[in-house]
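User: what does the whole thing look like in 3D?
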Amino acid sequence: MSTQKLAGKVAVVTGASKGIGASIAKHLAAEGAAVVVNYSSSKAGADKVVAEITGSGGKAVAVQADLSKPEEVTKLFTETKKAYGKVDVLVNNAGIYEMRPLEQVDADHFHRQFDLNVLGLILASKEALPLFPSEGGSVINISSVVSTARFPGSVAYSATKGAVDAVTRVLSAELGSRKIRVNTINPGMVETEGFHTAGIGGSEMQTAVEAQTPLGRIGQPQDIAGAAVFLASSDSSWITGETFVISGGMR
Ligand code: NAP
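Assistant: Here's the predicted 3D structure for the full assembly of 251 residues, as structure tokens:
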């Protein structure tokens, strides 16, 4: 018998061409899941993740879909059904973060983040629903410590993650009778491509976060992936509606 925790399972990881999503995809695959590696524009990144997984004997396919567009959310699950026929695990990871002081917030900045981080996440959960088998499954939403922290200059982004926490609570109640568990992972600051693009690497913000972190460092993507494997597997079979803050102790 396989000792892999996710043998025979199918996982969809949104935004898995880099950063936290790529690490989660690889860790789920290492436990035996067939993984749909979603990306929006980074085909090379997604292909590399797929090649790493298949090169280690795992199963994965890359599927392009811009999840801020409802019709492309539908496409992601049509392709998933074609590739693997079902969904056991959905990791709603795709997200963008743009830091701006209140004076520079406008409707475009708001909608860019809400259309993906909240609407995309809700619609992905909806489209995945008919593909979960009768024995249920696991939805893992990637929120952030910002949902409860007080970071100046992150009003719209923090609002998206507060919404993700709320969506998780509601859907855990709504989907419990179908044995679908819904939890969030709320990472602290993690060094990813997006973290560098946003100019956070080496910034005063990074120094301030490190100073407030009991474990004294920011995270790496693999610091998050282990928790995703736990929440995807039957090791967490009686856990739903919970928030897992993974931040080196930073609040
Ligand atoms: P990242 O390095 O910027 O990677 C983002 C991923 O999302 C990429 O695979 C990207 O694919 C994909 N993506 C972006 N826009 C998309 C769209 N419209 N449709 C589908 N996929 C899209 O980000 P990250 O730092 O790993 O963050 C991942 C998640 O963790 C986000 O939800 C973020 O809010 C959360 N988080 C991050 C941190 C942190 O410090 N890094 C902390 C807490 C929470 P393409 O390259 O193809 O666009």
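In plain terms: Residues 107-128 form the longest helix (22 residues). Strands lie at 10-13, 34-39, 59-64, 89-92, 137-142, 180-187, 243-246.
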